[in-house]
Specification:
By secondary structure, this protein is an alpha/beta fold. The protein has 8 helices and 9 strands. A hairpin with a 2-residue loop joins strand 5 and strand 6. Helix 2 packs across helix 8. The N terminus is likely disordered.
């Protein structure tokens, strides 16, 4: 993306507020984001685009925007992807035009992405409010992943290794919330959102 096009995108984002939240797998990010969205019904949740097929129960436009590989690559060429990555053969990314639609209208937008995605976004939108959700410890994180029962021991070890790498980059974020007691973590998250009220 050229510097000119970056400036062109940034210049549209002066009204709303973009909140970026990241966390290691199992830290409770989805639960916290859901609670915050219930507390702030005006908050727009950014829906990612992906080329992978929908899983059982997933709905287009609600869980993801499901598009073809050709369409995704066209969006990359048109510089419409504010951040993107290819994971296990499928593209995932955030549309700049989707963000612009709401931020230019003065809306607050919540974007749930990983650390690498955050690095891409804040280069384009340096005024973003960044939030990192931490587990109390890696030991607690292992217990949560094991209790969830979704992964075998090898997959859990991989998730923990990824978590260590992500936690090592937590200083990239302005706000860090340790999700030890869920109610306290929800209140801390909501407090951050409330500091950036929508324009009257």
């Amino acid at each position: 993306m050229t510097e000119h096009s970056r400036h062109k995108i940034q210049s549209k984002f002066h009204k709303g507020c973009l909140f970026i939240v990241s966390a290691p797998s199992g830290a409770g990010k989805s639960t916290l984001c859901q609670a915050v969205r219930e507390r702030f019904p005006d908050l727009v949740y950014s829906i990612s685009f992906t080329t992978r097929p929908p899983r059982a129960g997933e709905k287009d436009g609600l869980d993801y925007f499901f598009i073809s590989t050709a369409e995704f690559e066209k969006r990359i060429q048109q510089e419409d992807m504010a951040e993107w990555a290819k994971v296990h053969g499928h593209y995932y990314g955030t549309s700049a035009s989707f963000l612009n639609q709401y931020l230019s209208a003065g809306r607050r937008v919540l974007l749930d992405i990983d650390v690498e995605g955050t690095r891409q976004i804040i280069k384009l939108f340096p005024d973003s409010v960044t939030i990192f959700i931490m587990p109390p410890s890696l030991g607690v994180l292992r217990e949560r992943l094991e209790k969830r029962g979704a992964d075998d021991p090898e997959a859990i070890n991989k998730r923990l290794a990824a978590a260590k790498a992500e936690i090592a980059q937590k200083d990239l974020y302005q706000h860090i919330i340790v999700n030890d007691q869920l109610d306290d973590a929800i209140e801390a998250f909501c407090d951050i959102i409330s500091r950036y009220p929508p324009p009257s």
